[in-house]
Amino acid sequence: MLSGLSCPWLALLMAAGIALDLLLGEARRWHPLVGFGNLAKRIEGALNRAPALRLRGLLAWALAVLPGVALATWIIQLAPWWLACLLHAGLLYFCIGLRSLREHAIPIALALARGDLASARILTSYIVSRDTREAGEADLAKAGVESLLENGNDAVFGTLFWFAVAGGPGALLFRLSNTLDAMWGYRNERFFYFGWAAARIDDALNWAPARLTAFSYAWLGDHRRALACWKEQAPAWSSPNAGPVMAAGAGALGLALGGAAIYDGEVEHRPPLGRGAPAQGADIVRAWRLVAMSTALWLAAAWALAAISFGVFHA
Fold first, then answer.
1. Which helix or strand (DSSP H or E) is residue 255 part of?
2. Closest among 241, 168, 170 to 202, alpha carbons compared
3. Residue 3's closest CA among 113, 99, 71, 77?
4. Which protein family is named in the record (predicted)?
5. What is the extent of the structural domain holding 274?
6. Partner of 89 for a Cys bridge, out of 15, 16, 241, 302, CB 3.0 to 4.6 A?
7. Are 274 and 251 a contacting pair, CB within 8 Å?
């Protein structure tokens, strides 16, 4: 492991980081990612201008991400072992967003269950970029499920993958890169060139975890349908990573997702995802359970590797 952690320590610290997230949730004040977002805005304001926008965008990404990752790596390497362990687990806690997914998605399902469309529209608008002001129950349920499936990879499994590769600094690298993609990775006039580096780097860091996420969804759901949807539908999506994750997730749940959605006042016809019935409010809960079970699967895999490593070491 590039992290320098043995498999037993890796599994233990991964479990600790996940437990902290489930117990504490996101920091309500002084969250590091909020400060990072403010820093990124200042860097973008200084560098997002001609000429050489792509090079400036790459420089901006490096200035925003690399110093923090390098500092975290340096501190962990110099720290005594017990403090290094705390730092690894603490970085994973700050970078993972499992409980946050639940806190944002489940209230939508509850609002839909009691027929409160007004609240459901507001709650859904917090987690998606599409227009929800006139959305019906089916549209809101579809948006909630799609957000859970995609962000399961972005907020949970990508972070766990890079934690397994490089410990706390790896989780931090992924989370900061993913945050910059969310801020700069738009194909509009402002970010088309400047955000190119952030989008491509995030695609590269997400390639392996996205496919492991898709396999996890397929394994825990209707795996034949999930794998078929992944193969047939993912290539139609512009994102090389969101396509496999959402197609496999929709297939695993037996839902028909994708299709029309309103963005900036215009109807966008997106490729289909999955096969089956249209999403309903209760399917948001099913999608959350799929993400939670996939997290348990990844943790179980880490502990299995730890057990194998321990047995081989003591053979």
1. strand 255-263
2. 241
3. 77
4. Belongs to the CobD/CbiB family.
5. 7-313
6. 16
7. yes
